[in-house]
Specification:
By secondary structure, this protein is mostly helical. Among the domains are: 1-12 and 168-330, Potassium Channel Kv1.1, Chain A, CATH 3.30.710; 35-151, Potassium Channel Kv1.1, Chain A, CATH 3.30.710. Helices cover 55% and strands 5% of the residues. The protein contains 26 helices and 6 strands. Strands 2-1-3 form a 3-stranded mixed beta sheet. A 3-stranded mixed beta sheet has the order 5-4-6. Strand 1 and strand 2 (45-49) form a beta hairpin. Helix 19 (370-385) runs antiparallel to helix 20 (391-414). The radius of gyration is 32 Å and the shape is elongated. It binds zinc ion. It comes from Jimgerdemannia flammicorona. This is BTB domain-containing protein. Residues 484-498 have a biased composition (Basic and acidic residues). Residues 33-113, 167-249 form the BTB domain.
């Protein structure tokens, strides 16, 4: 489990294994329970269960002593005629057994006092007497929220997956037509992918539907290879059996990790696991960023677009805070040059996300930050120009940069005297802080383009009075007029621009 570096944005989601197993216990018909525990009481009490889970959670000695029929591995599965095990009330009272059953499924005792008094299974295990491997410690019973109990449950279920005991479905993948770029998962067992119907059905509405209609048919279920590359499928299975995602090899690249989580999220969406697998995937993806709101490093910039996509895909599953956080960072008007000039931004899906980012950015550009925003736009335009031959650069330029440039410049033109005279950034440029003259050029060119009858007078007055009046300006513009061929960036446009400026 990676450290939750973005905890303030996205709390670690709860483990969903217990929830799924509780669902299986409470819905025996929907999860094909193949086992009945019967008490010859009056009326007769029947409790449904799933044979793989009981075997995963109890010791062999315990089963041999109290449920010898369970050890008959050769018995055919027949959900219509489940295996019936009659329990002796002298060994365990029905109410107590119900509590024990609950513990086997969830790792939690609902009524701890009952269990403390039982001698059920003491002979066989020599421990606390309910047959659970290693036996629950009394402290766990009294404190049902104990992490040990849930870890034990996950470990038992992981072993069930590895050993495949009573596995009753095989998931198959048609061969991929293209080479997989997935990360390797050496810790996970290779295919074929054996699993248990009750667990898949408890986690996923897709599996619940697919496995219920094919009960009497083949125990093989073919999955789509494009949705479930092998690594994605094994990661899903690991999650289904343990409640958490498997670790990713340290050697995998950031790109491989992003790709892995994106595919896993799509698979979770396909399986109807929006509030479990999808949320966990989003959490792990977010944890790849150092800090979404403050860190502007390359890694965090790469994490943002896929995180925004999956946060948007699952608005309904409680990731709205994540979407808000991503959107807030991406629509920061003074950070556009950092977060936008990347191919994934042009390829955001749905494309409307780009429009949302652009419009949110516009709403955040106000007179007080207009100059700084324009400076970010200037840097963004240079970054995009470096990739001018690539279509993604063109997409960002036309759909995001241009409308924001128009809006920001319009804002500056409308409030030119106030905005320029109160902007430290602008005044630093005017005072000739080296490369900032490129930005000043950029600003003036676009201001001139938007000048109208109502604004030209004010702008001209401000330029003459406030801008040219500053001591440092005369020198700088004298240098400009003198020409300098060596300047980078927008120097090519400068001559034409200069004519405009001198015409004010
Ligand atoms: Zn970072």
């Amino acid at each position: 489990m990676p450290a939750a570096k973005n905890q303030s944005l996205f709390e670690e989601p709860p483990h969903t294994l217990v929830k799924a197993l509780k669902y299986a216990l409470d819905n025996p018909a929907l999860t094909q329970a193949d086992l009945r525990f019967a008490f010859r009481t009056s009326p007769e009490l029947i409790l449904s269960a799933h044979r793989p889970l009981i075997c995963a959670r109890t010791t062999k000695a315990f089963r041999a002593r109290y449920m010898p029929a369970l050890e008959n591995i050769d018995q055919e599965h027949d959900y219509e005629n489940p295996l019936i095990i009659t329990l002796d009330p002298d060994h365990v009272q029905p109410d107590l057994f119900r509590d024990i059953l609950h513990y086997w499924y969830t790792g939690v005792f609902e009524r701890a006092t009952n269990v403390l008094a039982t001698t059920f299974g003491v002979e066989a295990t020599g421990r606390d007497g309910i047959g659970v491997k290693d036996g629950p410690q009394h402290a766990n019973i009294i404190d049902p929220s104990s992490a040990d109990a849930s870890a034990r449950l996950a470990e038992d279920m992981f072993n069930l997956w590895k050993e495949g005991t009573y596995s009753d479905v095989e998931l198959t993948l048609p061969p991929l037509s293209r080479p997989s770029s997935q990360v390797e998962q050496p810790l996970l067992p290779p295919g074929p992918y054996h699993a248990h119907r009750f667990l898949l059905s408890s986690h996923s509405s897709y599996f619940s539907a697919m496995l219920s209609v094919s009960l009497a048919e083949s125990t093989t279920l073919a999955l789509h290879s494009d949705i479930f590359p092998p690594v994605t499928l094994t990661s899903f299975l690991h999650f289904a059996y343990t409640g958490h995602l498997p670790p990713i090899p340290e050697t995998s690249t950031l790109k491989q990790r992003l790709n892995h989580f994106e595919l896993l999220h799509l698979a979770g969406d396909f399986l109807g696991m929006g509030d479990s697998l999808c949320v966990h995937t989003a959490y792990h993806l977010a944890a790849l960023a150092h800090n979404l709101t403050t860190c502007r490093c390359d890694q965090c910039q790469q994490v943002l677009p896929p995180l925004l996509i999956i946060a948007h895909r699952h608005l309904r599953t409680g990731t709205s805070s994540l979407l808000d956080a991503c959107g807030r960072v991406l629509s920061d008007p003074v950070g556009m040059h950092l977060t936008w000039p990347h191919r994934p931004i042009a390829e955001l899906s749905p494309p409307a996300l780009r429009d949302t980012i652009a419009s949110c950015t516009i709403t955040r550009i106000v007179p007080a930050n207009a100059i700084d925003s324009l400076q970010s736009i200037h840097a963004l335009s240079m970054a995009l120009e470096a990739h001018a031959a690539e279509s993604w650069s063109h997409t960002i330029t036309t759909t995001m940069l241009k409308p924001i440039l128009t809006h920001t410049t319009g804002l500056i033109v409308a409030g030119f005297p106030t905005i320029t005279s109160s902007s430290p950034t602008f005044l630093a440029c005017v005072d000739g802080m080296g490369l900032s003259l490129d930005f000043l050029d950029f600003l003036l060119v676009h201001v001139v383009k938007q000048l109208g009858d109502a604004t030209v007078g004010k702008v001209y007055q401000a330029v003459v009075r406030d801008l040219l009046g500053r001591g440092s300006v005369a020198d700088n513009f004298a240098e400009e007029v003198g020409g300098d061929e060596g300047r980078q960036g927008f120097g090519r446009d400068r001559r034409g621009n200069r004519a405009d400026v001198s015409g004010w």
